[in-house]
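Quick one:
INPUT:
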């Protein structure tokens, strides 16, 4: 039987007060709708139909790489109307999961449970019971069986006391959607076509309406404003942090950790407070990350220690490396094992060989540095002539003196040494010493100027 996923994403999201469509607002670094599409993909759905409206072009562009079928709802006449516009593309048979683009944390497990419960009945929904369900559609039951969903605005005083509400996530047989949706009316308090009315239609058809509850409440939390977005971000972060800790990652304080993507971590990885991990990162065994680091799309091999406030992006770091504090690795930085990178060192598109060191204040860009070399404090690779980038090649066991300007393209041979303060514009042969600096001038018994007395 085919499984389809229908995602409602046409709403305006007025309360976000943003020029960005609501479903593109990020949660844990990914658009809300991106989370839902990702979950739909994990379910191996035969097709994913997304209903768009407001900001449609931006939304479609953001997911151009995804295999999603887009259906436009030009006027937002209600959730029932939204699903109705998919009927021309919806297969006659099979079952559809109906999800909301602004309910990003629903899990594969809960949706599988929903599908299991709904396949025989033809209709099922995810509900949740809370102390106060104000605002939500209430689940009306008789003898324990669902009879209807009544929207808050249409509900009686008595019905408003019901604590079980509709989360807006359903599984419905396609045949039934084709049958029921054309029959919806907008004769209600909001003048909208309510998708929720299909529950009463199911009862009229003699069907039983299945229901499941999510394992965790945040799975069904929707985002309507920035306050809810921030609250859900925290809940999602806590959930991810817990999963990492269960896998053996030592987070010093899970409430001060942010993962905006995926972290593959070995054993005994230790992460201090206020670290942000973005994109996809892999940390080997015993990696330690100091406080305040921001690490994006970077692989760090076993035993490497990163001191506080270091910022990495698209870098590859070997094992037993020492970095920071305040180090910056930009895209293409590749550090072999046992490299030392100290404070205020910036590395871009540069390979640094085993055991080499740049411990203080340096810019290493577009360079190849061999093994066992030492880069003095304040050294700059002058890689850019204002038009083009050029390479600096530094061999093995090189000693670059303090405060060198290495004007690329330039090659420093194996075992070579450069004097402090040199501006190196020509290649240096293996095992040579190159010094480029003017001679020191000295005046004996020099008298400094005196302040003129008035
Ligand atoms: C809906 C449910 C309510 C449930 C609540 C859960 C109905 C009538 N009510 O209420 O029972 O408790 O969700 O959050 O369905 N959308 C469209 N096109 C439209 C209208 C809405 O795409 O014409 C999308 C919205 O962008 C949103 C989702 O559908 O993603 C839900 O719409 P929303 O207006 O938030 O529904 P509620 O009135 O809150
Ligand atoms: Ca809503």
């Amino acid at each position: 039987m085919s499984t389809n996923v229908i995602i409602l994403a046409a709403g305006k999201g007025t309360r976000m007060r943003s020029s960005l469509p609501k479903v593109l607002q990020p949660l844990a670094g990914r658009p809300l709708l991106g989370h839902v599409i990702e979950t739909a993909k994990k379910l191996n759905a035969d097709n994913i139909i997304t209903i768009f409206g407001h900001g449609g072009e931006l939304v479609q562009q953001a997911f151009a790489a995804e295999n999603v079928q887009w259906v436009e709802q030009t006027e937002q006449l209600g959730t029932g109307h939204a699903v109705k516009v998919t009927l021309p593309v919806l297969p006659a048979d099979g079952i559809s999961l109906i999800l909301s683009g602004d309910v990003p944390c629903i899990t594969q497990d809960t949706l599988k449970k929903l599908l299991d419960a709904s396949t025989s009945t033809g209709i099922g929904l995810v509900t949740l019971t809370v102390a106060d369900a104000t605002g939500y559609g209430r689940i009306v039951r008789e003898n324990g069986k669902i009879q209807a969903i009544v929207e808050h605005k249409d509900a009686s005083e008595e019905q408003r006391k019901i604590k079980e509400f509709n989360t807006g996530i359903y599984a419905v047989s396609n045949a039934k959607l084709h049958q029921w949706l054309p029959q919806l009316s907008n004769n209600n308090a909001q003048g909208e076509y309510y998708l929720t009315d299909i529950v009463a239609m199911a009862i009229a058809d003699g069907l039983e309406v299945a229901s499941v509850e999510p394992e965790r409440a945040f799975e069904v939390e929707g985002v309507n404003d920035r306050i809810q977005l921030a609250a859900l971000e925290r809940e999602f972060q806590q959930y991810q942090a817990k999963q990492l800790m269960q896998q053996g990652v030592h987070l010093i304080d899970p409430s001060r950790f942010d993962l905006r993507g995926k972290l593959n971590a070995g054993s005994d990885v230790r992460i201090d407070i206020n670290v942000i991990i973005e994109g996809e990162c892999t940390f080997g065994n015993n990696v330690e990350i100091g406080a305040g680091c921001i690490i994006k799309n970077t692989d760090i091999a076993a035993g490497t220690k990163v001191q506080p406030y270091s910022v990495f992006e698209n870098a590859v770091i070997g094992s037993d490396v020492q970095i920071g504090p305040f180090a910056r690795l930009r895209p293409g930085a590749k550090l072999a094992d046992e490299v030392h990178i100290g404070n205020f060192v910036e590395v871009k598109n540069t390979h640094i060989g085993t055991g080499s060191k740049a411990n203080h204040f340096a810019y290493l860009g577009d360079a190849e540095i061999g093994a066992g070399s030492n880069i003095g404090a304040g050294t700059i690779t002058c890689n850019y002539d204002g038009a083009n980038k050029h390479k600096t090649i530094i061999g093995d066991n090189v000693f670059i003196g303090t405060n060198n300007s290495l004007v690329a393209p330039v090659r420093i041979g194996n075992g070579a040494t450069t004097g402090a303060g040199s501006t190196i514009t020509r290649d240096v042969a293996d095992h040579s010493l190159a010094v480029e600096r003017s001679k020191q001038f000295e005046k004996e018994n020099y008298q400094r100027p005196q302040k003129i007395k008035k």
